[in-house]
Automatic annotation (TrEMBL):
Protein name as it appears in the record: Phosphoribosylaminoimidazole-succinocarboxamide synthase
Superkingdom of the source species: Bacteria
Enzyme class (EC, first level): ligase
Domain SAICAR synthetase/ADE2 N-terminal: 7-235
Signal peptide: none
SUPFAM superfamilies, per database record: SAICAR synthase-like
Pathway the protein takes part in: Purine metabolism; IMP biosynthesis via de novo pathway; 5-amino-1-(5-phospho-D-ribosyl)imidazole-4-carboxamide from 5-amino-1-(5-phospho-D-ribosyl)imidazole-4-carboxylate: step 1/2
Reactions catalysed: 5-amino-1-(5-phospho-D-ribosyl)imidazole-4-carboxylate + L-aspartate + ATP = (2S)-2-[5-amino-1-(5-phospho-beta-D-ribosyl)imidazole-4-carboxamido]succinate + ADP + phosphate + 2 H(+)
C-alpha cells in the first residue's frame, strides 16, 4: 500500500484508492471498538479473520445473484472492491431479540421474533447512529422510496442466505447489519451490498449452547473474541483445524 492514497479511515477499516478507475482497496484493521469507539482494543488477527469471512460470504452472495461491491480478496488483509456511493444508513435485520431491541421493548434476550424485522440507523458517529424511520430517510433525501424498497429486498435476501448458511454449521443468526451503496455503471445505477459481513457485524450464537461467537464477546467483556471468530471461520471451512491460529489476542489501547 506504499504511496497509495488513503480515501477514508473508519473504526475497523481503511479505504485506499484502487489500481483501476472505479475500484478501491478495503483494508481490515485489528481494531475492536464498541459504543462508538468509547471502548477500543487491538485484537491481533481480527482483521485477517474478518477479511476471510467477509470474502467467503460476499463471494456466495455474488454467486446467487445478490449484487455486492466485492471483486476479490487481494491478500490476508485487503479486498478489491467497486467504488460505490455509500448510503448513510445502517440496515439491521433482526431474527431474535438481542441487544438494543431487547432493552427498548423489554424483551428477554433469545426470544424468537414473530418475523424478521428491518431497522434503519442514520450513520453519524457524533449522534451515536440514531434509529430512524422510513419517513426520515425519504424526507432528508438519504434514499428515495424506490431505493428503500431495493435495500429492504436485498436485506431480506441476505437474511435468507445467511440464516441457512449459518444454520448448516450449527450457528444461529440472531441479527446482522449491512450497508448499501449506489453503483454507477454508465447511465445505470443499482443498489448493492457494501462494507463487510463478518462476526463484527452479525450476532452469531451456537445453536446448542447459545455461546456468543461475535463482537458481543468484546462489548460485554466476555473474553475469547479471537477464538470465537476463528471458530466461525473453521465451521465455514475457511480455515482448517490444523492451520496456525491467527493473531495473539487483545491489546489494550490507551
Amino acid at each position: 500500500m506504499n504511496r497509495r492514497r488513503r480515501i477514508y479511515e473508519g473504526k475497523g477499516k481503511i479505504i485506499y484508492e484502487g489500481p483501476e478507475p472505479g475500484t478501491l482497496v478495503q483494508h481490515f484493521k485489528d481494531d475492536a471498538t464498541a459504543f462508538n469507539n468509547k471502548k477500543h482494543e487491538i485484537v491481533d488477527g481480527k482483521g485477517v479473520l474478518n477479511n476471510r469471512i467477509s470474502e467467503y460470504i460476499f463471494n456466495h452472495l455474488n454467486a446467487i445473484g445478490i449484487p455486492t461491491h466485492f471483486i476479490r480478496r487481494m491478500n490476508m488483509r485487503e479486498q478489491l472492491i467497486r467504488e460505490v456511493e455509500i448510503i448513510p444508513l445502517e440496515v439491521v435485520v433482526r431474527n431474535v431479540a438481542a441487544g438494543s431491541i431487547a432493552k427498548r421493548l423489554g424483551l428477554e434476550e433469545g426470544t424468537q421474533l414473530p418475523r424478521s424485522i428491518i431497522e434503519f440507523y442514520y450513520k453519524n458517529d457524533e449522534l451515536d447512529d440514531p434509529m430512524v424511520a422510513e419517513e426520515h430517510i425519504t424526507a432528508f433525501g438519504w434514499a428515495t422510496p424506490q431505493e428503500l424498497d431495493d435495500i429492504m429486498a436485498l436485506a431480506i435476501r441476505v437474511n435468507d442466505f445467511l440464516s441457512g448458511l449459518f444454520l448448516g454449521v450449527g450457528i444461529r443468526l440472531v441479527d446482522f447489519k449491512i450497508e448499501c451503496g449506489r453503483l454507477f455503471e454508465g447511465d445505470m445505477m443499482r443498489i448493492v451490498v457494501a462494507d463487510e459481513i463478518s462476526p463484527d457485524s452479525c450476532r452469531l450464537w451456537d445453536i446448542e449452547t447459545n455461546d456468543k461467537m461475535d463482537k458481543d464477546r468484546f462489548r460485554r467483556d466476555m473474553g475469547g473474541m479471537l477464538e470465537a471468530y476463528q471458530e466461525v471461520a473453521r465451521r465455514l471451512g475457511i480455515i482448517v483445524s490444523q492451520e496456525r491460529p491467527v493473531g495473539s489476542g487483545p491489546t489494550l489501547v490507551q
